[in-house]
Write a structure and sequence with these properties.
The complex is a heterotrimer of chains A (about 230), B (about 750) and C (about 80).
Chain A: E1 2-7, H1 14-25, E2 28-33, E3 44-47, H2 67-77, E4 81-85, H3 87-94, E5 101-103, E6 111-119, E7 135-142, E8 146-148, H4 151-159, E9 163-168, E10 187-191, E11 197-200, H5 218-228
Parallel strand pairs in A: 1-2, 1-3, 3-4, 4-11
Antiparallel strand pairs in A: 5-8, 6-7, 6-9, 9-10, 10-11
Helix pairs in contact in A: 1-5
Chain B: H1 3-6, H2 14-19, H3 24-34, H4 40-49, H5 52-55, H6 60-63, E1 73-75, E2 82-85, E3 91-99, H7 101-106, H8 108-124, E4 129-139, H9 145-165, E5 169-176, E6 185-195, E7 210-215, H10 225-228, H11 249-263, E8 268-273, H12 278-290, E9 293-297, H13 310-315, E10 321-326, H14 331-340, E11 344-352, E12 356-361, E13 364-370, H15 371-376, H16 391-395, H17 406-415, H18 423-426, E14 437-439, E15 446-449, E16 456-462, H19 465-470, H20 472-489, E17 493-502, H21 509-528, E18 533-539, E19 543-544, E20 547-548, E21 552-561, E22 578-582, H22 593-599, H23 611-626, E23 632-635, H24 640-649, E24 655-661, H25 667-672, E25 679-683, H26 688-697, E26 702-710, E27 712-717, E28 720-726, H27 727-741
Chain C: E1 2-9, H1 16-27, E2 39-45, H2 52-63, E3 69-76
Antiparallel strand pairs in C: 1-2, 1-3
Classes of the chains: A alpha/beta (about 230), B alpha+beta (about 750), C alpha+beta (about 80).
């Protein structure tokens, strides 16, 4: 697997994703500059977290006009794998690669903490090393992670098993008490219908090594690396 | 009409000088130094440089008492930030703490945000990539709406700036005391990583080299902000609001990336951040340090507002700007890098060799001042100091009755805003970005892994200002000792500190005495503990309507791990471990949170610090950590032994503790006294003998006080049960207290 | 002249900022405000109103997120 981490002005988890992909997973990894149009033959594109363009209009709203994003859209349409984390998820919804929108947290404040996630679909290229219903602990860090979609859209997500992660308690129950930001249906991460584009608010790259609080995020990267193949 | 006349500046008089903060004698001194009357622009420049904030005129002679050298110190005080070496291969960390108190009182959100921005620039100006931020915050009590509003705004401002910039804000300290009602303290700290050979300094060398302005455009922000930060507050302060700078963390992030990219090349000679007093201090410092000179064409400076004049440009404190000196002929290469990051980079002058900073407008010289004398011969005062007469009364320990229900006292202390969990604060900070935070906030020290290496850094910020009020010398010692102890308790070797000395009006002898005593106490502790001062700042005049804050010399101590996997957390990790106490309970309650919160007395001499004992604790902890003998460790501070034991149970795993003490001390003093030199350890029972022997080797008293258990906190003294509660009940009180008050 | 583009949340989309502001208004002692909705206004200096079509394009693709927001455009002399 060759991975590319997109760098927008204001991306700040770009080095973190690069570190995990390259040094922990052992994948060949490159940075993709927002003004470029060459994807350098990568198999996986990662939109990292951060504050692209300062998040000054709406999170992810300006990034979608970058030259690189037009290329990534084509790449995804042709079946290429795209992972958006936090601000990257916002870029994916803003650019139409994933349905719905991410709004201001219901508590209005930025929130950074470990949360419990239930894996609701382990049959994706990104989650095949988890089990359905497994509860994992991965940190969030965002002010705008409140997922919204209209009723019809929600029905479609449910029917197609597109909801991959939900916020839950330690027993896997996804209720309002365990919802950190007000997301509809406690949604923390979704995949597109085709199954190649995943967006999630939590940061798996922040817990992918033994020295961290948990190592639960490692398996997401390992899943996609195994799925694409050719690492280490 | 000359260009200067066109601006229509007011006449330069002693009155005008006074309006800019220059005293009559300082104004006379200026005239003598120049041998002529300064013009209006020059007067503005000089008054900024002579302000307390820039010149340290009241504090300089005492700051010289700090030890500032050690084999591992690469850069001591005097640059944008200090630097220590972490390993033998030149891996260094660069750090500093700085106050942004006055701006944060006037506009909490922007004041705190720009404080963070300023300290980050100080670090990356040296060539270091910031990898951790921290803050020491002090507010009035949360029952007053005004204090809640300031607290909320400050935390939001720090969160806004740090999160967007992408530096993890890994912890810090938050204190509440009514002495900060009209004077909140916001001390921002940042730490960056740099290889020794890649360090950049503020230099303006090489005749004819271009001076380049980079970053945000200049507006009329914070004109005379440095002067404002050197005045007492009064009721007019709120009307100074237009002076407040607005921060743009996104721009600063771009500036960081562009500067670090540029620093990998050999295109530039020196670089300096435009902080307090903006272009004035950056140009004069660069010129005076290099003994060169600088010519600036001020009309070339990128301006955000129409009709700005040279005076305003020189004194603007607009944020996110840098001044650099490039090698001649490399201008276009420098510009190309800034272009890539969508930033302005404009040549606004050149390096000269006549020792002067000369300011031009439309090609005509509008001001000329010699750089070195102005920097070197800034006023320096040996202000009179004397112990206040009120000290005898303050130091007398009042007699208090023992409360009948100590468990209730414990619950009240856990809910006390100074002791309660600061989760509400750090949940708003992105404390994990950069995947280096291996110890989450809430422990004694924050622990950061450095890059891909095994090396790590522990950081702790401390100052018990009540101790400093009651006995500034012992309080100063305690600030150093506690921060070093916190670093050591996490397993790291304390190496150096940075400080932010927040005091009242130095023109009052009793305040000056607090300052001198605290500095001397800190210096003494720093010598014994082998932790030099490598950077810092001083914030004076923290008074509102004549009421000063408690003396608050904030210390941020940095320690080093050779192997960060050997770090020690402060929460109990498992049941059926042995619990040991290093040090002794003396039952002294003077200056304690207990005495203040429960009995209403902020009285009694501060507890004495035994520096030899503290040094031994540090050596013991480093040795024990290296041998992986300790499962958890926590120092005893605010709230005493009982609170420290509780805090160790609040890691979320419902591990409790069963403690049996055998002491003749009155129970309330035993549980809540705050004498120094104590650490609680969680030890695997199989290691008990080794640990005891190790403590004896370091001449430390050690006693087994109990064991960990499931879900209960029980403390007994001589078979009398004094505390018996569920971990979950007490944890809830402690964890939610601040969040509930802020709803 | 000045073009003003107003962007607001669609009816029915939860607005936590608006709700918070509304309860603050109530805490200030006023009881007439029954619903607060927060929006944005973009003021753009333009030559004349012939740019309406282009502005609509800009508003619908960038200034507003049409999944949750709607916009309107006004011109002011």
């Amino acid at each position: 697997m060759k991975a590319g981490v997109v760098v927008f002005p204001g991306s700040n988890c770009d080095h973190d994703c690069y570190h995990v992909l390259k040094h922990v997973i052992g994948a060949e990894t490159v940075f993709l500059w927002h003004k470029d149009t060459d994807l350098q033959g990568v198999d996986l594109v990662v939109f990292p977290g951060g504050f692209s363009y300062g998040d000054y209009l709406r999170c992810g709203a300006i990034a979608k006009f970058s030259p690189i994003v037009s290329e990534v859209i084509k790449f995804a349409e042709n079946g290429g794998h795209v992972l958006g984390i936090c601000n990257g998820f916002q870029v994916l919804t803003e650019s139409g690669l994933l349905p719905g929108a991410l709004m201001r947290n219901r508590g209005l404040k930025f929130k950074c903490e470990y949360v419990n996630l239930r894996v609701d679909n382990s049959d994706t290229p990104y989650t095949n090393m988890y089990a359905d219903g497994e509860v994992i602990r991965i940190p969030i860090a965002h002010a705008d992670g409140n997922y919204y979609i209209d009723e019809e859209g929600m029905k479609e997500l449910e029917e197609n098993k597109q909801i991959v992660f939900r916020y839950c308690d330690e027993n896997g129950t996804a209720e309002d008490d365990s919802n950190p930001n007000g997301s509809l249906g406690n949604i923390a991460g979704i995949i597109n219908k085709k199954g190649n584009v995943l967006g999630m608010m939590p940061h798996p790259e922040r817990c992918a090594e033994g020295v961290m609080e948990t190592r639960d995020g490692y398996f997401l990267f390992e899943s996609i690396a195994k799925f694409i193949g050719g690492c280490k | 009409m000359s260009v200067y006349e066109k601006f229509g500046f007011p006449e330069v008089t002693a009155e005008a000088a006074k309006g800019m903060g220059l005293s009559a004698s300082e104004f006379e001194g200026v005239k003598k130094l120049l041998g002529r009357m300064p013009n209006y622009i020059e007067l503005g420049v000089i008054s900024s440089m002579y302000s307390e904030h820039c010149s340290y005129k009241s504090s300089r002679m005492h700051l010289a008492k700090f030890p500032t050298t050690a084999p591992w110190v690469v850069q001591g005080p005097g640059e944008n930030a200090g630097i220590i070496e972490v390993d033998s291969e030149g891996l260094c960390v660069c750090f500093k703490v700085e106050s942004h108190n006055h701006p944060s009182f006037i506009e909490p959100f922007q004041g705190a945000a720009t404080g963070v921005g300023g300290i980050l620039r100080d670090v990356f100006t040296m060539g270091a990539r910031p990898v951790a931020a921290m803050n020491s915050l002090r507010f009035g009590k949360l029952d007053k709406p005004k204090n809640r509003q300031i607290f909320e705004g400050v935390v939001a401002g720090i969160s806004h700036y740090g999160n967007c910039f992408g530096v993890p804000t890994v912890g810090g300290e938050v204190y509440f005391n009514s002495c900060y009602d009209g004077n909140p303290l916001v001390n921002a700290f940042a730490l960056g990583v740099v290889q020794k050979e890649n360090i950049y300094l503020a230099k303006a060398e090489g005749l004819g080299n271009p001076v380049i302005y980079v970053g945000a455009k200049t507006g009329r922000d914070g004109i005379h902000g440095a002067t404002m930060a050197s005045e007492e507050f009064n009721e007019n302060s709120e009307s100074k609001r237009p002076n407040v700078q607005i921060g743009d963390p996104f721009k600063e992030k771009l500036l960081l990336e562009a500067c670090l990219e540029l620093m990998k090349t050999d295109y530039i000679v020196g670089i300096q951040d435009m902080g307090a007093a903006g272009l004035t201090s950056s140009s004069f410092e660069m010129a005076s340090k290099s003994g060169s000179g600088v010519r600036l064409d001020l009309d070339m400076v990128p301006m955000r507002e129409k009709g700005m004049n040279p005076y305003e440009i020189m004194l603007s404190e607009s944020q996110e700007r840098m001044l650099m000196v490039a090698k001649k002929g490399y201008e276009d290469k420098v510009k190309a890098i800034f272009d890539k990051w969508d930033l302005d980079a404009v040549v606004i002058g050149e390096v000269t060799n006549d020792g002067y900073v000369r300011l031009f407008w439309d090609g005509e010289e509008v001001a000329a001042l010699e750089a070195a004398p102005l920097a070197d011969e800034a006023p320096k005062y040996n202000r009179p100091y004397a112990r206040g007469e009120y000290m005898d009364e303050l130091q007398r320990l009042p007699k208090v009755d023992a409360p009948s229900n100590l468990q209730k006292v414990l619950e009240d202390l856990l809910a006390n805003e100074t002791i309660a969990s600061k989760r509400w604060v750090w949940n708003q900070y992105d404390h994990m970005v950069r995947v280096g935070t291996v110890q989450l906030p809430g422990s004694d020290a924050a622990v950061i892994r450095l890059n891909e290496s095994e090396k790590g850094i522990a950081i702790s910020s401390d100052c018990n200002s009540r101790f400093c009020l009651l006995n500034p010398y012992e309080g100063g010692k305690a600030a150093i000792a506690e921060s070093a102890r916190n670093v050591a308790v996490s397993g790291a070797r304390p190496r150096a500190f940075t400080n932010c000395l927040n005091f009242g009006n130095p023109e009052k002898p009793d305040i000056m005495w607090q300052f001198v005593s605290a500095v001397e106490g800190m210096a003494e502790a720093a010598k014994v503990l082998e932790t030099p001062a490598i950077s810092g700042n001083v914030s004076l005049y923290n008074e509102t309507e004549g009421k000063p804050i408690y003396p608050t010399p904030t210390i941020v101590m940095v320690g080093v791990f050779d192997d960060v996997t050997k770090r020690i957390g402060s929460y109990f990790t498992s049941m059926e471990s042995a619990v040991y106490l290093i040090g002794e309970n003396t039952g002294y309650i003077g200056g304690s949170e207990y005495l203040a919160a429960v009995h209403g007395y902020e009285r009694g001499d501060a507890p004495e610090v035994d520096l030899e004992r503290e040094k031994n604790i540090i050596d013991f902890m480093c040795d024990a950590a290296d041998k992986r003998l300790v499962k958890a460790a926590h120092d005893v501070s605010e709230g005493g032994l009982a609170v420290a034991l509780c805090e160790m149970c609040f890691g979320g795993d419902n591990v409790g503790v069963n403690v049996k003490l055998e002491s003749g001390i009155r129970a309330d003093a035993l549980l809540f006294g705050e004498n120094h030199g104590r650490v609680i350890l969680e030890i695997d029972v199989n290691n008990a003998q080794v640990v005891t022997a190790l403590a004896e080797k370091y001449n430390l008293p050690i006693s087994k006080i109990g064991r960990t258990c499931s879900g209960l906190i029980e403390i007994a003294n001589k078979s009398e049960k004094v505390i018996s509660a569920k971990v979950s009940d007490l944890e809830k009180i402690w964890k939610n207290s601040i969040g509930d008050r802020m709803k | 002249m000045k073009a003003k583009v107003y962007v607001r949340l669609k009816n029915g989309v939860l607005d936590p900022q608006g709700q918070t502001i509304q309860s603050s208004i109530e805490r200030m002692g006023y009881d007439f405000a029954s619903e607060v909705r927060v929006g944005k206004v973009f003021e753009i200096e333009v030559k004349d109103d012939s740019c309406r079509k282009d502005l609509e394009k800009i508003a619908s693709t960038m200034l507003a997120n049409m999944i949750i927001e709607e916009y309107s455009i006004e011109f002011e002399a």
